[in-house]
Structure prediction request, 168 residues.
Amino acid sequence: MGDPKRIRKKYETPGHPWRADVLAEELKLLGEYGLRNKRELWRTASVLRRVRAQARALFSVTGERKRQQEEKLIGKLNRMGILPEGAVLDDVLRLTVRDFLERRLQTMVYRLGLARTLYQARQFIVHGHVFVGERKVRSPSYHVMRGEEDKIRLVLPSKQEQSTSPAS
Prediction:
């Protein structure tokens, strides 16, 4: 059958997990963005860490290769909706975890007013009531790309469908 793919963590934990300032900041972000656990926050922080590392590595490269890689990185972040048009490499280094958390589907559903709270937005997504375009998305951590914001819609089952369904 072949070897199963090795499952790896997609995040790195903090180097000093018991520092009071780190704990307070993490707790604040958990509540502000309706995250289920710190693992979701750490995953986002790891993505940011990798992007910033790519940007820092580009400062040591010169010539045409630097220009191509810089355009590729900034173009990717632009398509993701994290950086605006005309951003430069220094803008990549100014990014924060909040910039990535703002692009999560859970946050976007709440910000668009489709749910009253972040937790209700999460529930709608997990229960399969949220569509991005024609696709049903059940992952609250889905990253909403630029241009997909206006395609997010909420489809709740009507009360008549519920009353006509057979009781089990």
Notes: The chain has two domains: 9-101, 103-168.
